Amino acid sequence: MLYAILCYNSEDAVGSWSKAEDDRVMAQLGAVEDGLAQKGKLGPVARLMNTTAATTLRKSGNEQIVLDGPFAETKEQFLGFFVLDCESLEDAIAATRELAIANPGGGAYEIRPLRIFKPAPEGFRGKALG
């Protein structure tokens, strides 16, 4: 079974780190990642860009509204994610509209630029879900 480990922290706190502090944290994380990789447990490592780069497609029934920023309501839970390779934000919004149509009910889709720090190391045991 695969698990997504979603890391939460204050963007203001992390953004205020000096380069030396950020390098120290990345080195500490790298040590943990190396251990997990040696066990064949580490998949891709990604860090979402700041929420200021987010776009949300909110839907209510058949109506869809595109908003700047992350605007999911707190009564909604983060349930999963898609990684899409799109030419532009407009392309990503178009693809998200298709997902919204395919998924019944309300909800929100936060569209965030994604930066891959490391691909899955050789030996990662993750298999396709099914």
From TrEMBL:
Q: Which InterPro entries match?
A: Dimeric_a/b-barrel, YCII
**Sequence ranges assigned to domain YCII-related in this UniProt record:** 1-117
The source's superkingdom equals Bacteria
Tell me the SUPFAM superfamilies matching this sequence. Answer: Dimeric alpha+beta barrel (SSF54909)
PANTHER family noted in UniProt: BLL7171 PROTEIN, BLL7171 PROTEIN-RELATED
Which family does the record claim for this protein?
A: Belongs to the YciI family.
Query: What name does this protein carry?
Result: YciI family protein
